[in-house]
From TrEMBL:
Every GGDEF domain range: 209-339
Matching CDD domains: GGDEF
Pfam families referenced in this protein's UniProt entry, alphabetically: GAF_2, GGDEF
SMART domains referenced in this protein's UniProt entry, alphabetically: GAF (SM00065), GGDEF (SM00267)
Protein name: GGDEF domain-containing protein
Amino acid sequence: MESSSSDSTLEKILKIQTELTAAKPDVPYLLELITHRAKEITGSEGAVFELVEGDELVYRAASGTAERQIGLRLPVKDSFSGLSLQSRTSLYCIDSEEDDRVNREACRVVGLRSMIVLPLYFDSEVLGVLKVHSSKVGFYTTNDTYILNMLSGTMAAVLHNAYRWAEREKSLQSMAYLASHDALTGIFNRSAFYDYLRKGLSRIVNDGSLLTIALFDLDGLKKINDTYGHAAGDFYLARFASRFSPLVQNQDVLARLGGDEFGLILIYKEPKKSILTLLDHIRTMVEGEIQFESTKLQIKTSMGFAFFPEDGIDPETLMAVADSRMYENKRLRKKEENL
């Protein structure tokens, strides 16, 4: 029976290693894949990849219960993850309420009690920290640490190779840039969006500014993919982003949140009515006909928005309100088209 269990574990490790080495060399995609597989193989409630950016660790990819903390920033100093980077070893916290090595307040924010942190290095290059966590005390075993250590070399190698590939192909120089930008459109990605949203909310509390989130969902992408192929769908997404980007002011943030959904963060001191007029103008400007090879495609988008502080004061509430309004807008647009 022990042999069967061991074989099963090794088979899982080999399967993940094969999947990682065969994956496309896209840093955000690999970070998401790593967190999902780390969560699954350890039975964790959540997993996160923390990227070192200066004196901070940034949640650049997350799965499970950690997803709601994407974009979170924590100081490297006096953190459990920072200690693992310094020692270059995996560390296990049995109970965050009893372990003096951890940032207890940060653990409470995330909702964890036990965790394993694993520093990822390639030669002398620091790539980041992989963390798996549970709300249960003493959840992990030595086998879980063994599994993650077995995977660490492959994880570090594929991330390093993806970074070097992007550096050659696109002259990009920073892992932080790759981890915070969408490879297809070149704009910010989901983790960067939440990072800027958290920072924006923190900054405007005392300066009298207001903040608006606008979500845009492209209508008809699935039909385009099914009819003309994914090359057409990728072109559709990229053209939408390239039309949108010039309309965004320097202090505002445009990001691809995933699939056909985009997000915009506006920080302003103008009346709410002016912002709604601006958003309608932006939608009018980005919609319209585009040419893909010999095929004409029509960009259409549904939109939803949320205002701080009237619709909420935290990222999760604001996003939920904007998402609800976006799908209501999509429903109304479909109803109008069918009349």
